[in-house]
Design goal:
heterodimer; A: six-stranded mixed β-sheet; five-stranded antiparallel β-sheet; B: 114 residues; seven-stranded mixed β-sheet; four-stranded antiparallel β-sheet; globular
Chain lengths: 113, 114
């Protein structure tokens, strides 16, 4: 049972435009959400996070939105740059398991010139 | 600068061999994790450890074991490698405590079992 889902395996966006990556979860015990970025042959690197007491968190070009009632979060990248081309993983953590993360299947973002 | 290192970037082994994957972190983190990453399946948790000599099964522990003899080192062992264990293996660590923090990942080991 996939508790964290990223239904779009890939996304192509033009440089300068907005990239929107989506993530859905089923476990209502999740209360902390993270996005990781992964380049080929490298480990994932942390990008941005949000706790369930917020509905938005912003860090430079990256903004994460959380809709708890819909169990949905999204990552917005504005403006998109070629260096943003990577695989993006959504992850979730729950109360009492603060260190253990459940990951989605990933979305491959390609930013074209 | 935080660092998680893994003993090999690429490894080729034969079916039936015993395989050791080593992970070392220099951040004095209590918690360490082993994942495997496969296309279309994301990162799946194999085992994790909250403290020295402690281990807990993740979502896909079958065919694997782990060892944590020192705080900074977490080893993944494939007792008898099989072709379906060909994958990218990722180690991660995180500080303990009640606060939420991100996990830090190593560069990964691409294991091929022939």
């Amino acid at each position: 049972d996939q508790q964290v889902k990223q239904n779009s395996p890939s996304l192509s966006v033009q440089e300068g435009r907005i990239s929107i990556l989506n993530c859905d979860y089923t476990n209502s015990m999740f209360d902390y959400f993270l996005w990781y970025k992964k380049y080929p042959a490298e480990g994932p690197t942390f990008l941005i996070s949000i706790s369930s007491i917020k509905d938005k968190n912003e860090d430079g070009r990256f903004t994460v939105f959380l809709n708890k009632s819909a169990k949905h979060l999204s990552l917005h990248i504005v403006p998109s740059q070629p260096g943003d081309s990577a695989v993006y993983f959504c992850a979730a953590s729950g109360t009492g398991t603060a260190s253990k993360l459940t990951f989605g299947t990933g979305t491959r973002l390609q930013v074209t010139l | 600068d935080v660092k998680v290192t893994q003993s090999s970037r690429y490894l080729v082994k034969r079916t039936g061999e015993k395989v050791f994957l080593e992970c070392v972190q220099d951040m004095d983190h209590e918690n360490m994790f082993w994942y495997r990453q496969d296309p279309g399946l994301g990162l799946r948790l194999i085992y994790f450890s909250y403290d020295v000599k402690m281990k807990e099964k993740g979502d896909i522990p079958e065919g694997y074991s782990v060892s944590r003899e020192k705080k900074e080192r977490f080893s993944l062992i494939l007792e008898s490698a099989s072709t379906n264990q060909t994958s990218m293996y990722l180690c991660a660590s995180i500080t303990g405590g009640s606060g939420y923090n991100e996990q830090f990942f190593g560069p990964g080991t691409r294991l091929t079992v022939l």
